[in-house]
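Forum: Protein Structure Q&A
Topic: Joint prediction for protein chains with partners

I've read a bunch of threads here and the consensus seems to be that you should model interacting components together rather than docking separate models afterwards. I'd like to see that in practice. Below is the full input, 649 residues plus whatever partners are listed. Could one of the regulars post the assembled result?
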Amino acid sequence: MDTTDRTKAPPAAPAEGDPSGAAPPAKTKKKLVGPRAFKLLWDAHSVTGIVIGLGLFVIFFAGAFALYRGELHAWADPALRTTEVRLSADAVTTPLLAEHPPAQGTDLQVTYPIRERTYYFVRYETIEADSTRPVQAYVNASTGASFTPAVPNHVGRSMLSEMLYDLHFFGQAGMWGEILSGLAAVFFLFAVVSGLLIHWRKLPKDWHTFRPRARLRTALADAHNVLGLIGLPFTVMYAITGAFLALLVILLAPTVLVVFDGDTEALEATLSGFEMPPHEPTGAAAQMLSFEDIEEAVPASWDGVVEMTSIIVHGWGDEAAVAVVYGDVEHSLTQSPRAALSATTGEVLAANDPPTATALGGTTAVMTNLHYARLGSPLAKVLFFLLALATSAVILTGNVLWVLVRRPKDPRATPWLHRVLARLTVGVGCGLVAAVPLLFLTTAALPMDLPSLRIWEHVALFGGWAVLIAAAFFGPSPVWAARWQLALAGALSLIVPLANGLGTGAWPWVTAPLGQWAVFWVDVGFLLSAPILLWIAWRLSGEAHTLDRNAPPV
Amino acid sequence: MKHDWTTGEAYGKGTAAVLGGFAAFILFGLMLGTALPALGLPIGVAVALSAGLSIPVWTLFIGWAVLAPSGRGAWFRVGGTTLVLGVITVLAYFL
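Posted by a regular:
Agreed with the consensus. Here's the joint model:
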């Protein structure tokens, strides 16, 4: 987002709207675009940033947490916390199947614990007469403790992780929210590219100009430019992959109708390079192989390369039952192995072997794996997490600077739109930063078995956020609101690890020796973020009068 | 604002970027999915290209609309190209 305005100013005077107040260079370097295109792109860049800015902030901020979706499950629900000992799929399913016998011919799914996922997930239809929905059980991979989720197809009893994940693409608004997030990503890509074109000649200077001790407006402008430039490849990648994932269904729907004559299975086969063998139930009962037998019957080329992620037995208990085994190749962006076996004999019926991707499957896998940071070591995910937070900061500082550089000398002449934007930026931005630790605190404070837990979690995140947005509108000034909301966020962030330690005994010095790194790093992450948030709040209090002429004395 | 925008120009370019760009995005993907197999490319590769390229192409259309001489010019550019993409798709499908 543009924060400076150089072309309207006379050459010798400081540029109008230049937050640093510095005079422009006497000789202008060559621009990448002509004067007219420069003006048009500048305005389009600004307006695009303002229109989609706050939505993008929510997408990136919630997205930073969504990267650690699995880890957050373990933090939120103590029953999902594991040590390294892992039970086999048979050890997990046998007691479950005995307690809730499966219906003949049901599709029985077992999702394996892999990487950050600490649990098995088992799902099937049962023959029990009083059952109104399929059996859905999450089973701790080291203790064997199992429970049903609060909401079908949602992990665990707490909704914390799923709420932040859904918020990342406005999933709470259903399909339309996802489309809206895809639209925002497309225009974000335009904003990034147009920003690159208009800032082209000052990129080398922006790269190394950061003056945190200068007046706050200058520091904000520097932070906006430096962080934006550092995160440029990351933001381009996320804009493209995000738009791709959100809009793929819309893009492929006409293709399925026209190219595949409405046959979605043909598209699926093109996508995966794998054709599902026939598996119509015959009605004749048969003994199913154990999961250990199925694991051993996969193609030999999988040995030591492919990690199994899930098995779905189509037609459980029937002699024609087919087990489809899904795998994952670590550090591979494109491979998605799949094999279909007879669930009674173990014969391999179909497999994309060698598990090389098709063009379409590879494209989709690259986009997905890049977006979910499924590449490199855990440090790559940490880097993505930090860059997502940095991009959130770039977006918020962009909004703040947009208002600041257009501030008239007489504050009473400030257009109402600018006033609303300033307060909305504080309420949405700082409000969400404070509402997230409030959500974590609510989850940590309430018992997992509380039936209304997910309602209270929604109240904490969305109710708390709404109150903070309202407070930003009705407070004396936006800066005042930003200051106390960031201070609140810092204070709440300090309390989160305390609440977790007091409630579950999972203090950082307990979780680290047990290898419960997910829980450890969530707590430590809050402990590290608290002083940063408090420092920003303190920094704002010292400069409130320079930012907001309407602000009361500090 | 650096440019002297008229209301018609702003609305024309804005709608061309959002609505026209969306139509171009869909038809560009459909055109690749139908025309490339007709030229002998495997269907999986054609659909992969359409899936991978359509988003950046939409972004290009937004920029092209913004840089148009007027709001009507933006619609002429984006709408005209979309029409051409549609014709190619229909020809590739039926021929």
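The mean pLDDT of chain B is 91.
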